[in-house]
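ok, trying the design again with the full structure, not the truncated one.
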């Protein structure tokens, strides 16, 4: 039996040695960190199937298209060419812990504007989970469901704004004639097939972000095949080290280099996330063509503005009391990028908190190395150790802890921009945002207009913009 081990690289190396020696398991489960899974999947496929056989003997099935019965039929079918056959199910939902109705409904509300069909399908899944039907809810039937019943279904949450989204999603479901979502978690046939054995040469590869280890299918996969867990690197140092290693590999293969300014720009846009950063690097390698050096302007042009970029711009505009600029950025976030007003609000709260924490650090008088206008390299070398020391001396995780636990670039940006605000202005801003959050959740007022009203009042109120 193959069980999860502490070092996934060792597990993968062992599997690749087995494949090189001609020992092919009937199944492989790869779960955990997305980028590491993708890298391992490519290596395993390459070891099982020569490139010339992949057009006919390699089959991919996506999570939302995967019917277990169809998967089983594909697994027992003979290959088109007389060679190994590989069937890959990406993000196999039937392996994951069962989602709760509240989370499904949150997905409905998140995707309703950007991807209405996905929201409608999620809503049909939600109905199946709670035992309701469209017939129960149509023609105003949803209004007859008591608040107590909604709270029971939603684990205590009181969704008092459902009149805004529920009729819309029901209209899509009815117009598309969507059927109740069939449960895809019935894996009995697949379990029997794996236990009895797949036809010689046929291989199943499953990937998943998370798995429910209590499921019988996971036990069977462990006993009959190979299970590899790829845990995300813990801690900032390990994350950066892993990303640097993978980046060097990618850049070396392509004969390219990344100038320091481009690396910082990439980190700001991707948060130094492994999957996002490596995906962005692939685009940059292709974009720069024959040129060997990737510059900052390449990153700005290829990756474009992120939500985080716009939130930086929004808080900067608030600090400079530039209402027209702040309103423009807000409209880009909500209108162009489709970010929900409540999400914008939470991002604003996060940024304002970071600015306040940065001022607390500065006001302590113990950041002796900090100088306005210093570059990021100096900041990392001189200021970050002082901040870590201050945070480490605290008795518990509190006001000084949140910012110090972030990536150094996030801390640098907060310190660099904190001088635009006074402590009092930042505290009043957080109080106003808390009031705004309550209004958005308990009243029927337009959330976008509430945000715009906040921007105007903050920029044009001299007390709010007061500096020290």
């Amino acid at each position: 039996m193959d069980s999860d081990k502490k070092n996934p690289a060792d597990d993968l190396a062992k599997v690749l040695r087995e494949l090189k020696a001609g020992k092919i398991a009937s199944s492989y489960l790869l779960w955990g960190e997305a980028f590491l899974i993708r890298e391992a999947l490519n290596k395993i496929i390459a070891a099982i199937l020569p490139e010339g056989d992949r057009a006919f003997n390699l089959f991919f099935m996506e999570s939302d298209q995967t019917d277990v019965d169809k998967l089983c039929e594909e697994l027992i079918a003979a290959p088109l060419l007389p060679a190994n056959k590989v069937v890959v199910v990406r993000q196999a939902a039937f392996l994951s812990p069962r989602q709760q109705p509240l989370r499904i409904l949150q997905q409905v509300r998140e995707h309703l504007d950007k991807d209405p069909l996905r929201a409608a399908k999620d809503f049909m899944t939600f109905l199946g989970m709670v035992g309701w039907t469209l017939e129960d809810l149509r023609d105003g039937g949803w209004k007859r469901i008591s608040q107590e019943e909604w709270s029971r279904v939603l684990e205590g949450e009181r969704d008092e704004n459902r009149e805004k989204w529920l009729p819309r999603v029901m209209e899509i479901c009815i117009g598309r004639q969507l059927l109740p979502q069939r449960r895809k978690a019935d894996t009995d046939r697949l379990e029997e097939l794996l236990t009895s054995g797949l036809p010689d040469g046929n291989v199943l590869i499953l990937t998943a972000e998370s798995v429910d280890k209590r499921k019988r299918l996971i036990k069977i996969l462990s006993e009959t095949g190979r299970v590899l867990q790829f845990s995300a690197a813990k801690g900032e140092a390990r994350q950066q080290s892993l990303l640097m290693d993978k980046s060097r590999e990618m850049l070396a293969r392509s004969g390219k280099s990344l100038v320091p300014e481009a690396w910082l720009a990439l980190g700001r846009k991707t948060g130094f996330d492994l999957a996002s950063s490596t995906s962005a690097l692939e685009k940059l390698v292709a974009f720069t063509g024959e040129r060997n050096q990737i510059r900052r302007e390449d990153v700005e042009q290829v990756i474009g503005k992120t939500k985080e970029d716009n939130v930086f711009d929004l808080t900067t505009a608030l600090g400079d009391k530039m209402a027209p600029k702040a309103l423009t950025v807000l409209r880009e976030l909500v209108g162009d990028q489709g970010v929900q007003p409540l999400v914008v609000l939470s991002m604003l709260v996060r940024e304002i908190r970071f600015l306040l924490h940065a001022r607390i650090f500065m006001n302590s008088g113990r950041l002796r190395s900090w100088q306005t206008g210093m570059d990021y390299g100096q900041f990392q070398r001189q200021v970050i150790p002082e901040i870590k020391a201050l945070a480490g001396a605290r008795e518990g995780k509190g006001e000084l802890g949140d910012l110090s636990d972030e990536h150094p670039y996030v801390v640098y940006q907060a310190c660099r921009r904190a001088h635009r605000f006074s402590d009092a202005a930042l505290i009043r801003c957080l109080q106003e945002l808390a009031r705004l959050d309550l209004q958005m959740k308990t009243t029927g007022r337009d959330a976008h207009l509430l945000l715009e009203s906040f921007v105007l009042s903050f920029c044009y109120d001299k007390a709010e913009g007061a500096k020290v």
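Keeping the full-length input from now on. The CA atoms of residues 326 and 412 lie 22 Å apart.
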